[in-house]
Design a protein that fits this description.
Layout: H1 2-5, E1 12-19, E2 25-33, H2 40-43, H3 53-57
Antiparallel strand pairs: 1-2
Length: about 60
Amino acid sequence: MDSFEDSSVDAFYIAYAQFISTTIQKPSVVQLLPISETTENETNAEYIYEPSPNGVLS
């Protein structure tokens, strides 16, 4: 984090083997920093939880 904050590095990535099955592991790379901005559609998602908490507990 300190390296990113003082601008000595531009981005952080993590590389790992994504487990698909016992015989298949897919190499994956994910960018951690800088965090990309989300789009409008991703932030305004509405979720419906069924049944309601009262319905589960009654």
